[in-house]
Amino acid sequence: MKSKFEGAIITEQGKTCAVVSVQPAMFQNAINATMIIKALLPVFKGIPVVLMTIDAKGVPGYFGRGDLIDLLENVNIKEASWSQIEADIDLNNSSCPMKEE
């Protein structure tokens, strides 16, 4: 199933990652969040992906590699160049490797 997201490429301190905005509910299930990251990797040609959501106070929260999250804590994410992306994501796919772990 095609899903639409807002994404941005961020380069900070020599590291590049893709930041993808998702609904807060995606953070409630680490397996699903990891599946979304894996599904987005081809869209960004292998650039590491971090999921992001904004809380009610406008503060961003992240899910992904710890080193990239630490890096993003120092970035004004609102200044990023955001664009719409599409990816095939099926969270019900029982053959997904993450479901087997």
Verbal overview:
The protein has three helices and five strands, in the order ββαββαβα. The protein has helices at residues 30-40, 66-72, 97-100; strands at 2-12, 15-21, 49-54, 60-63, 83-88. The protein is globular and about 35 Å long. The two termini are 23 Å apart.
Question: Would you summarize the structure shown here?
Answer:
This protein is α+β, with helices and mostly antiparallel strands and 101 residues long. It has three helices and five strands. Mean pLDDT is 86; it is low at 94-101.
Number of helices: 3
Give the mean pLDDT. Answer: 86
Note the run of SSEs as H and E: EEHEEHEH
Please identify the structural class as seen in this structure: alpha+beta
Count all strands and give the number.
5
Residue share in helix? 10-25%
Rg is 13 Å
Our count of domains comes out at 1
Q: Characterize the largest beta sheet: strand count, sense, and whether it forms a barrel.
A: 5 strands, mixed
Shape: globular
Low-confidence stretches: 94-101
Strands of the biggest beta sheet: in what spatial order?
4-3-2-1-5
Q: How far apart are the first and last residues' alpha carbons, in Å?
A: 23 Å
Strand content: 25-35%
Write the layout of secondary structure elements.
Elements: E1 2-12, E2 15-21, H1 30-40, E3 49-54, E4 60-63, H2 66-72, E5 83-88, H3 97-100
Parallel strand pairs: 2-3
Antiparallel strand pairs: 1-2, 1-5, 3-4
Highlighted features:
alpha+beta, disordered C terminus, 101 residues, five-stranded mixed beta sheet
